[in-house]
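Methods — Computational structure assignment.
A single polypeptide chain was analysed. Its primary sequence is given first, followed by the predicted tertiary structure written as structure tokens.
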Amino acid sequence: MRLVLACAAAAAAADLGPCGARGRYGEAPNETLFYLKTIKTASSSLRFLFLRFARAERLAALRGRRAGGQFFDAATAKGDTRWPAEFEDPGESRSPPGAFDVAFDHSTWDAAALDRYLPRARKFASSRDVVARAVSAIAYFHRDATPDEYFGGCRIVEGGLCGGWSRLQHAEKDAVHVWNSVAWQLRARAAARPLDFRRPAAEAAAPAAAGVSEAVGAVRGAVFDFVVVAERYDASLVLLRSKLCWRWLDVVGPEPPLAPAPQDASRRASHRAAAPLRNVTARTLVALNVLDGRIHAAARDAFDAARRDYGGNFDRDVAFFRAYKFALLVTCVICRARAPPRALAAYAELCGDARPTCRDLAAHESRIPTE
């Protein structure tokens, strides 16, 4: 492992991938970045990467005054989806007052506002398999509930889908948290509709008939440089790195064993393991998230295209990245231990330069300042 880490450390410091001498995107003035943080798509882990890069390069971060820096009221489908006119003061940064370099929070898509506040920004987002995203959203927003609990037992009704009411359901909040959330953030007109779960087939038919061609085109490259596919997370980070000419270290985020699973995912996973998802429940989640399904299919197509265009040995680089990440995180655990095991004392010589990185990787994203 020590040899892997030593080799990887050298690569992390110097290897910018196929970009070569052009340097990391975002280092130079007027190189702006926008990450659209979508709901339950591994987006907190991805925001961490942009946030840490912003701090290291003294970028002026565009953040709304609402909780979490978000640019919209996520509590209701009827909330204000316009970007606010004023933002938090980014503090000391490389840019003059009123100019911004990066945004990485929840927002709804607003091309005109983006061009005004982050002109010529390179744009990124993330997407996730609709069943996994819906299961995670239901658990997160409804105290670890399973989909069957959400549907009040999942009584099979019209169209062979789950139907029924439970106290867990919140028509307006869930319309943007659970159902077609990515489509809503991309301003698909048929999204953000409160649903009547007593008639799931009819509710699924309405968005199914609607078009999402603009959002699909955006994901396929008309707007976004790249959309991370959550179920191909490590491979997506390798592609993200190649798009931005970043170092390997720049795409390592807080993960076990150094940091706890994000948003207590391990506890929710163990809770759901006792109640595996039934086929009828999965079909219902797919039917009611048809807009997000189309967008995610486009994201997978874009991932496949980026992989074909990758300028190196992709499978080798994914394997290297996983080995590097594991070695770095384990080393950080040892470096942060008060009394590391004697058998691992040799790692101590690697701790000096690694300590700032280890401190960042062990911290919650909200405790990493952006100035």
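Note: The longest helix spans residues 314-336.
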